Amino acid sequence: MEKRVVYTAATIAAVACVVAVIVIRKRSKGIKWGKVKEMFKEIESKCALPIERLKQIASAMETEMHAGLASDGGSKLKMLLSYVDRLPTGGEEGLFYALDLGGTNFRVLRVQLGGKEGGVVRQEYQEVSIPPHLMVGSSHDLFDFIAEALSSFVASEGEEYKVPEGKQRELGFTFSFPVKQLSLSSGTLIKWTKGFCIEETVGEDVVAELTKAMERQGLDMKVTALVNDTVGTLVGGRYEDGDVMAGVILGTGSNAAYVERASSIPKWHDELPKSGEMVINMEWGNFKSPLLPVTEFDEALDFESLNPGEQIYEKLISGMYLGEVVRRVLLKISEEFPIFGDIVPPKLESPFILRTPQMSGIHHDSSPDLKVVAKKLKETLGIHNTSIKTRKFVVDVCDMVAKRAARLAAAGIYAIIKKIGRDTLSDDKQRTVIAIDGGLFEHYTAFSDCLERTLRELLGEEVANSVVIKHANDGSGIGAALIAASHSN
């Protein structure tokens, strides 16, 4: 009886081996590139964004912008009031500080402004890592740690930074977590993200928490402004160029802020600001529409994410997700055809193993034999000995995903330009400048070039000549200091 069981198990193992060999031989017969391209074309058609569809997407976003300005909860776009109603003119003078808390590190900055003639006279900063235990500890301990770093930064100053008697130091606080803003200098935390989990801070005013911690440190400093990093990008850009009307983040995540007429904000019930303007934080990552080219790969990624059903637009255009979409496409195709050899590479089955910087390196390879592509596939995915045809195909997949993202981002910018009435030629031919920050825009040249070309298509050549895209480096830091300066007492 025992021999029969052993014999049966051995037989099953042998049959399994034979089946495996047959499958491998079948896959080894060669890649049917015609069939591969056919499958790719089908996926590509679902990602396609002809100009008319982009205009429809922009119109849908503009409609949502109106709804979000009319009432809280009226749209997927939150259209948050930033309470920034005075933008820098270039004439700001004095010493101002910024605290930029956006993740596991934070920066403290000191900015000396010299007015119209001097501009930014001096800018210094220090970066501090937050110990992991403070990210899940108590609110008291976290803000004490931050205030201590601020106090140490101030204590290291020389005589040239001495503050006049009776004057407080003023700080712009960039806090890149979901906040319900209550005024320019107050806002309650909705939820932590990015690995932080301190329940007692949720629902509390983060400016009040920081202020109490600074008082415990004996630091005489006032938080003049609480800002989002996108608003900071807009303000930093406006300081350099008075025609900046919007700030956009295209990095790991994505968002946009723009200058709106205060009279066009029905949900603003207070007295209109003297400037007649208000910066709006769109939170555009949450835009959703049946017009968006969502594929099976995007649906699966969204379903498996930490926030299914949310941030759909961001999942199509931001650096956090582009490499992952490429991986999913390559996995699906390699399961059907042996483009990477007789078996599916095990690493290709690992979520988020292919990051957008690696995707960018593959996409930008201009060598005749695509040796960078070969190197990236080997180092990142453990794929060896690829043919030139396979490498070219991988580049094509990267191009498809990046192009879709860039064209969608251009449609979002076009929606803002339409909303503020800058999509037609004016008599004075006024410039409209869009300040963009973020590693995706800065480092992924194929993405940024495609975005700019698409925006020109959407605007038409004549109007496009009056619209300028500018890279605004480090807007979130210096922008907070500038907002503090603009709203200084």
UniProtKB/TrEMBL annotation:
UniProt keyword Repressor present: no
Protein family per UniProt: Belongs to the hexokinase family.
GO cellular component: cytosol; mitochondrion
Domain Hexokinase N-terminal: 40-239
Domain Hexokinase C-terminal, first and last residues per copy: 246-485
Matches recorded under SUPFAM superfamilies: Actin-like ATPase domain
Organism: Rhynchospora tenuis
PROSITE patterns: HEXOKINASE_1, HEXOKINASE_2, PROKAR_LIPOPROTEIN
InterPro entries, A to Z: ATPase_NBD (IPR043129), Hexokinase (IPR001312), Hexokinase_BS (IPR019807), Hexokinase_C (IPR022673), Hexokinase_N (IPR022672)
Pfam family, one: Hexokinase_2
Pathway membership, UniProt: Carbohydrate metabolism; hexose metabolism; Carbohydrate degradation; glycolysis; D-glyceraldehyde 3-phosphate and glycerone phosphate from D-glucose: step 1/4
GO molecular function: ATP binding; D-glucose binding; fructokinase activity; glucokinase activity
Catalytic activity: a D-hexose + ATP = a D-hexose 6-phosphate + ADP + H(+); D-fructose + ATP = D-fructose 6-phosphate + ADP + H(+); D-glucose + ATP = D-glucose 6-phosphate + ADP + H(+)
Protein name: Phosphotransferase
Enzyme Commission no: 2.7.1.-
Entry annotated with the keyword Acyltransferase: no
Entry's transmembrane regions: 6-24
Keyword annotations: ATP-binding, Glycolysis, Kinase, Membrane, Nucleotide-binding, Transferase, Transmembrane, Transmembrane helix
